[in-house]
Design brief:
The chain is mainly α and about 600 residues long. The protein contains 23 helices and 5 strands. A hairpin with an 8-residue loop joins strand 3 and strand 4.
């Protein structure tokens, strides 16, 4: 068919699309630019190019349900998460009750408003529940079990004495455990492991449960982009089509700035400025050693081991520094003011210290081994396609460049889960500690008892997150962020924050919004590498407010029922730190765009 004279190709394309009757309309213009592909004629949630190729029972996501304006669609899409947070923080309900309220709302919105088939909605929810049980709940249980073994065998008492001999100062202990040690755990395992382990350690050292949970959530931010041996960046590479070396280098030019800030932020969250500045030398040693290693490793060497190496360097540097330097006064919590000074206690010998730390040395070895084996494909996947869901849900433009079916397969290989590695560490620790079978069983029962309530919250919260993803509600919210024009580098960073707050994972957020970030960046003539990296870097600051992390922290600190209080305590920390990341991204976008990497060659690139 020939082209009509006097009409441009773009005009003719729009006419043809309208005649074909694709889709359900576009977002109503509000004076801000539409999501970029929509300006070229794409509809928001149209049928794939070849509808006949759709398998029976397939469903195409619609990003403008019921033809409502974009802002109203965004409000509807936000209802499930708003309900969850309202029950947690507003009504101060228990986490299981809040999760149930959010899950019911999500199902109703998905079926009645987004018009997702009810079988698909229930399958998506069930898929998330299964993921909440394994691997998330599995790793939390295993971490609590290991902690219980260390307590029951008396190892924790010697551990406390060894750390107290290095420093009895709670500010410095938080830096050692929550920041440096937590970064190692994040780099090796991720997915709840660092928060579960670090919180349990701090509580065992004598921290009150609430501040221990809050501090570990704040600390578990800067390392997240390379968590689980670089898994979030591998997911971002897969969906964006950008080189992983460039993505790693860009993150390693954004996050080291925050890596210097976060140790200072962490201490300031505990004490006023005067007490914060008393330990400034230690704060700088901790943060700068981590940031320099993070920058160098992410820009020049490797993607997978950034967090592990940076965490080890930071931990060793701070420990060595503390052998030569002491703050003018030891700070402890007010209720500990009458406690005897740890410096007056006899220091445990090297052999005692080694045996006491053995549970976590074994844990460290197993977690790193499991992370490396999983990252480099040494575990065989046993995937089970989810009925009514796998390859049945289609994402469309402008969320993705080309229409694609969403995979929904549950990995049934329990052996590959990080929790299994941690559980094996429990068995090895019990044997090396000469714990009797009866005592081992009692430790197991205690761990099970502590997990009864948290698992009732973790499972439905993950169900809510998965339903949000497969119904397209996440994309509806994401598209609202793309309407910010010249300020998109700032709000695009918050899009990554939103993705993690919704899904509980930087990996999931990158998989969710990575393609949208690239499409939008190219249309706005911004660097796709910068904006896709901003999605990951902004997402790490959302880690402390996602429901999954909060429930894990409350379970590990044995304060089930305080989830709303924890959320309120960390929320503004999360928003302010994300704002800092967003300002850094704006700086790269408009002031120093020449510093955005391209064609990076990493020495040990996989």
């Amino acid at each position: 068919m020939g082209r009509v004279p006097g009409r441009s190709r773009r005009e003719e394309r729009r006419s043809n699309l309208a005649a074909a009757g694709r889709g359900g309309g576009r977002f109503r213009d509000s004076g801000n630019p539409l999501p970029p592909p929509a300006r070229d004629g794409y509809k928001l949630g149209h049928m794939p190019s070849n509808p006949a190729a759709l398998a029976p029972g397939s469903w195409v996501q619609n990003y403008q349900p019921q033809g409502w304006p974009w802002w109203l669609a965004a409000i509807m899409a936000a209802l499930p998460v708003a309900m969850l947070f309202y029950f947690l923080a507003g009504l101060k309900s228990s986490a299981p009750r809040a999760a149930a309220a959010g899950a019911i709302t999500a199902i109703l919105v998905a079926v009645l408003y987004v018009q997702m088939p009810w079988r698909m909605a229930l399958s998506a929810f069930g898929f998330g529940v299964a993921f909440g049980l394994v691997p998330i709940g599995w790793v939390v249980f295993a971490a609590i079990f290991l902690y219980q073994i260390a307590v029951d065998t008396g190892k924790f008492e010697v551990m406390k004495a060894s750390i107290a001999h290095l420093t009895a100062d709670r500010r410095l202990q938080a830096l050692l455990i929550a920041f440096s040690f937590g970064a190692i755990m994040e780099g090796a395992a991720g997915f709840g492991t660092p928060v579960a382990i670090s919180v349990a350690l701090l509580v065992g050292l004598g921290f009150r449960p609430f501040p221990a949970a809050v501090l570990c959530l704040i600390a578990n931010t800067a390392p997240v982009a390379w968590g689980s041996v670089g898994t979030p960046l591998r997911a971002l590479e897969a969906v964006s089509g950008l080189p992983i070396n460039d993505l790693s280098a860009m993150n390693a030019r954004i996050l080291p700035i925050t890596s210097i800030i976060i140790p200072l932020w962490l201490v300031k969250a505990m004490v006023p400025w005067r007490e914060t500045l008393e330990v400034l030398p230690a704060v700088l040693v901790c943060g700068v050693s981590f940031a320099v290693t993070q920058f160098a490793w992410g820009n020049y060497l490797d993607v997978g081991l950034v967090d592990i190496v940076a965490g080890v360097v930071s931990l060793v540097a701070l420990a060595l520094f503390l052998t030569r330097w002491r703050p003018k006064r030891v700070w402890r919590f007010p209720e500990e003011s009458e406690a005897p000074s740890a410096q007056g206690l006899p220091a445990p010998g090297p052999r005692q210290v080694f045996i006491a730390w053995l549970p976590f040395l074994v844990l460290f070895a197993f977690v790193i081994l499991w992370g490396l084996l999983r990252a480099y494909g040494q575990f065989t996947k046993r995937e089970f396609p989810i009925p009514f869901l796998d390859q049945k849900v289609f994402r469309t433009q402008p969320v993705v460049a080309e229409e694609r079916a969403e995979k929904a397969a549950y990995d049934l290989n329990l052996f590959s889960a990080t929790g299994t590695g941690v559980l094996l560490a429990c068995f090895v620790t019990s044997i090396l500690s000469r714990q009797s079978p009866g005592a081992f069983f009692r430790s197991f029962v205690s761990a099970c008892s502590r997990m009864r309530v948290p698992i009732l919250a973790i499972a439905p919260m993950l169900g809510l997150a998965y339903l949000t993803r497969y119904s397209g509600m996440d994309a509806i919210l994401g598209l609202a962020f793309t309407r910010t024009g010249i300020l998109y580098p700032f709000f695009g960073t918050f899009l990554g924050w939103l993705g993690v707050a919704l899904t509980g994972s930087d990996t999931s957020s990158n998989a969710l919004f990575g393609s949208l970030q690239r499409i939008t960046a190219e249309q706005l003539q911004l660097s796709p590498v910068l904006m896709c990296s901003a999605n990951s870097a902004g997402g790490v600051m959302g880690k402390m407010v996602d429901a999954q992390s909060i429930v894990v922290a409350s379970a590990a600190s044995n304060q089930v029922g305080s989830e709303g209080k924890i959320l309120l305590a960390v929320f503004w920390h999360s928003v302010l730190l994300t704002t800092i990341v967003a300002l850094i991204v704006l700086l790269y976008a408009y002031v120093v765009p020449a510093l955005v990497p391209s064609g990076v060659k990493l020495r040990w690139s996989s």
